[in-house]
Structures are given as C-alpha cells and as structure tokens.
From TrEMBL:
Source organism (scientific name): Panagrolaimus superbus
Chief location of this protein within or outside the cell: mitochondrion
Protein name per UniProt: Uncharacterized protein
Leader peptide range in chain numbering: none
Superkingdom, natural source: Eukaryota
CDD domains listed in its UniProt record: Cyt_c_Oxidase_VIb
Record's keyword terms, sorted: Disulfide bond, Mitochondrion
GO cellular component terms, semicolon-separated: mitochondrion; respiratory chain complex IV
Subcellular location as annotated: Mitochondrion
Amino acid sequence: MAENMEIPETIGERLVKASQDAPALRHPDSPDWFNREVHETSKEKFAWAAPYDARFPQVRKQRQCFAYYVDFHRCQELMGADYAPCKFFQNVYKDFCPNFWVEKWDELREEGRFPAKFDR
C-alpha cells in the first residue's frame, strides 16, 4: 500500500525539469509577468508545501525540521534506501531546513556523533 503512494517532487526537482523543457528565466520586459494564466500554471507546477502536522503547531519550525530529517534517515535505515515513501520525509525536511543545518547534520552522521538513533 505504501509503495504505491504518489510522492510529489520538491520545488528544486520541478525547477530542474522545467528548465530542461523551456528557458528558466523570462525576459524582464516580457508581458508574461502580468498574465494570469501564466501565473496560475506556474503556481500549479511549482508550488508545493509540506502538509500541516499537528505535532508542530508553533510558528518556529526547528523541531519539525529535525524530526523529519531523522524520520527520513530512520526510514532509509529500516526500510532500505530504495523505499520510495521515504522521499516524502526528505521533501519535507528540504522544505523547512536551512542547507547549512543539513550539511552539519550530514557531517555529524558521517562522524558517528549525530544525537539521534536511526535503528529504532
């Protein structure tokens, strides 16, 4: 059941795919900037946000960022690296977490000093 669920792509993945199909940037004088249809289609193509999680009702998202980072690596550890639903956790933490946090956590994981366990 979980293997069949559809995981939306991240905004970065959508931008890469769109830049392969058409030029990534519009000319500053292009009338497309004021075209409602272009705006609506780009909103449908690129807008993705993590769903509401009742465990994190506060405005600050540090805990949610950390929890989804841990959930992603725990999912990969327990279910295997090729298990597709783990990508949902990755999409959420990439949506919330600043890159320098993720880089630091990756370093700590490689050194074996990360403060969470992934095998439980």
